[in-house]
C-alpha cells in the first residue's frame, strides 16, 4: 500500500512538502491550525479591501519559490522585473536615485548606478566596491563565518555607519530582517552573493499581482486536493508520538482525536516544533528554539484619496521609512468606490523597537516621514490608517544561529523537519521556506520505496 504521510503545518514549507509527497504517490494529510493555508503569507478583509499581512517580494534567484508558483499554476499572477530597478528616495530630494543593473556581468552590472548613487560620497562608493569584492570571497558555509557579526565585518572593510545604513541595509534589512550589527556574516554573505555579486539577473525583484491568499493559500488547497491529499484546516496538532516495537507508525493527536501515519513532516514554527518533537530527535540542547528567537515585522497601511506614488515601490534612505509598496490594484481599492485613491503599505523590518508602539504614535511618526519622501502627500487626504504586526515574522539571524537550525532529517525514524528556520543556508524568506519543504520531501521519499509495509494490526 502507498505510504501515509502527515504534513503538520500549511505554510509555504508544508505546502511544498505536501505537494512533493502527493505527486510521488503518497497518501498525504496536511494539518493546519489556521482556517486557511499560506502560513505567514496570508490576506484578510478590511471592509472592501483585501489586505496582505506583509509585503512579500522575491528575487529572480529564488528558484524554489518560483517552482512552487508554477506547481500552483499561479506564475502568471506575479510580476518580475526584466532588469533590477529600485527607486531610492531621500527626504526632501526632488527625485529618486535609481539602483539599476546593466547588461554587464556581475558585479559590473551595478557599477554605473553606484557611480551615481548620491546618498553616498565618492569615497564611500569606492569603499563599497572594495568591500563588495571582499564579500564575494567569504565562505558562508563555515561555522567561523556564521559566528561573525556582519556590521563589524563591514567596518573592518572600510564601511562607515552612513554607508551601512544607506546602501548595505537597503538590501540587507529587507532580506535578513535584521540590522547589519545584529546579523550573521554567513547569512549576509549568502544574500549578497546569491542576489547581487554572482549573477547579474539574480536580484531582479518580483511581487504578487493579487492578494497573497489568491497566490498561495487558495491555489494550494486546490492543488493538494487534486493531487489526492486531504487538507484539514482549523485543526491544531497537540502531539506526535512514534510507535513502539514493530509498530513504526506515528500517532498524531489533535483536539478531535488521533490518526496515524507512516512518516511525518513537521513544518511548523520553531517554538511549536520544539514542543512537538520527541526527546532526542535533534541534537540541539533543550531551549534551542528560544535561543534561536524571532524578529517582528510591522506594516503601516495608508489609504489616500489620490495617487502620490507612481512606481510599484520605493526604498527609503536617511529616513525610518524602509520600503513603500503601491497595493492599490491588489487590494481592490479601485472597485471599492475610491477609483482615484491609492493604498500604500510601508514595510518595517527588524521592528523590535516598533512592534509595541500604539497605532496613533506610528501615525504621528510615519505620515510626516512619508510626506517628506512623497511630496504629493501634502495635498492628499488620509482615508484610512492601520497597522499589522507579525511579532514572530522570522527567526533571528544572529551570529551563531546556524548551530540552532536543525536539518530536515531527524534522528527519529520517519520524522522530518521543514520551515524557513531549518538549515537551508538561507535567511527566513519565501525561498527558504520552499527550499526547506522540498528538502524534507526529498529526504522522506529517499528513505524507502513508494510502497511500505502493511499496517501492523
| Number of continuous helical runs | 14
Helix percent band: 25-40%
- Average pLDDT level: 95
**CATH architecture label of the largest domain:** 3-Layer(bba) Sandwich
Number of strands: 20
| C-alpha termini separation | 15 Å
Outline type: globular
The CATH homology group name of the largest domain: FAD/NAD(P)-binding domain
- Which structural class best describes the helix and strand composition? alpha/beta
What are the low-pLDDT stretches, counting only 5+ consecutive residues below 50? 449-457
Largest sheet: 7 strands, mixed
Beta-strand percent range: 15-25%
What is the CATH T-level topology of the largest domain?
Answer: FAD/NAD(P)-binding domain
**Main CATH class of the largest domain:** Alpha Beta
**Which strand order spans the largest sheet, edge to edge or round the barrel?**
8-7-16-17-18-15-19
The total domain count is 3
Q: Which radius of gyration do the C-alpha atoms yield?
A: 23 Å
Amino acid at each position: 500500500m502507498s505510504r501515509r504521510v502527515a504534513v503538520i503545518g500549511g505554510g509555504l514549507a508544508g505546502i511544498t512538502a505536501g505537494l512533493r509527497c502527493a505527486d510521488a504517490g503518497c497518501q498525504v494529510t496536511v494539518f493546519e491550525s489556521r482556517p486557511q493555508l499560506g502560513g505567514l503569507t496570508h490576506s484578510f478583509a478590511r471592509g472592501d479591501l483585501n489586505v496582505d499581512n506583509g509585503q512579500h517580494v522575491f528575487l529572480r534567484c529564488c528558484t524554489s519559490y518560483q517552482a512552487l508558483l508554477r506547481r500552483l499554476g499561479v506564475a502568471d499572477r506575479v510580476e518580475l522585473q526584466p532588469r533590477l530597478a529600485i527607486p531610492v528616495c531621500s527626504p526632501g530630494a526632488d527625485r529618486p536615485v535609481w539602483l539599476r543593473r546593466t547588461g554587464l556581468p556581475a558585479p559590473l552590472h551595478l557599477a554605473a548606478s553606484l557611480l551615481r548613487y548620491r546618498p553616498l560620497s565618492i569615497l564611500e562608493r569606492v569603499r563599497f566596491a572594495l568591500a563588495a569584492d571582499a564579500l564575494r570571497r567569504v565562505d558562508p558555509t563555515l561555522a567561523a563565518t556564521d559566528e561573525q557579526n556582519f556590521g563589524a565585518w563591514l567596518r573592518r572593510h572600510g564601511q562607515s555607519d552612513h554607508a551601512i545604513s544607506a546602501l548595505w541595509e537597503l538590501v540587507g534589512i529587507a532580506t535578513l530582517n535584521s540590522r547589519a550589527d545584529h546579523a550573521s556574516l554567513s547569512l549576509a554573505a549568502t544574500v549578497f552573493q546569491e542576489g547581487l555579486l554572482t549573477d547579474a539577473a539574480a536580484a531582479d525583484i518580483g511581487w504578487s499581482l493579487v492578494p497573497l491568499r489568491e497566490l498561495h493559500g487558495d491555489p494550494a488547497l486546490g492543488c493538494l486536493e487534486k493531487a489526492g491529499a486531504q487538507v484539514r484546516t482549523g485543526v491544531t496538532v497537540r502531539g506526535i508520538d512514534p510507535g513502539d516495537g514493530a509498530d513504526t507508525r506515528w500517532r498524531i493527536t489533535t483536539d478531535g482525536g488521533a490518526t496515524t501515519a507512516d512518516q511525518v513532516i513537521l513544518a511548523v514554527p520553531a517554538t511549536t516544533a520544539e514542543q512537538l518533537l520527541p526527546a532526542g530527535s535533534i541534537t540541539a540542547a533543550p531551549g534551542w528554539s528560544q535561543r534561536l528567537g524571532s524578529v517582528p515585522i510591522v506594516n503601516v497601511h495608508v489609504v489616500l484619496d489620490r495617487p502620490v506614488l507612481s512606481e510599484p515601490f520605493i526604498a527609503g534612505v536617511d529616513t525610518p521609512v524602509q520600503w513603500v509598496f503601491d497595493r492599490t490594484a491588489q487590494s481592490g481599492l479601485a472597485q471599492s468606490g475610491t477609483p482615484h485613491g491609492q493604498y500604500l503599505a510601508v514595510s518595517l523590518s527588524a521592528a523590535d523597537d516598533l512592534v509595541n508602539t500604539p497605532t496613533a504614535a506610528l501615525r504621528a511618526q510615519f505620515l510626516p516621514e512619508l510626506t517628506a519622501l512623497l511630496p504629493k502627500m501634502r495635498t492628499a487626504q488620509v482615508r484610512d490608517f492601520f497597522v499589522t504586526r507579525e511579532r514572530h515574522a522570522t527567526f533571528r539571524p544572529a551570529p551563531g544561529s546556524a548551530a540552532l537550525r536543525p536539518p530536515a532529517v531527524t534522528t527519529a525514524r520517519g520524522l522530518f523537519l521543514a520551515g524557513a528556520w531549518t538549515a537551508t543556508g538561507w535567511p527566513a524568506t519565501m525561498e527558504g521556506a520552499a527550499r526547506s519543504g522540498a528538502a524534507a520531501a526529498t529526504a522522506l521519499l529517499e528513505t524507502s520505496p513508494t510502497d511500505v509495509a502493511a499496517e501492523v494490526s
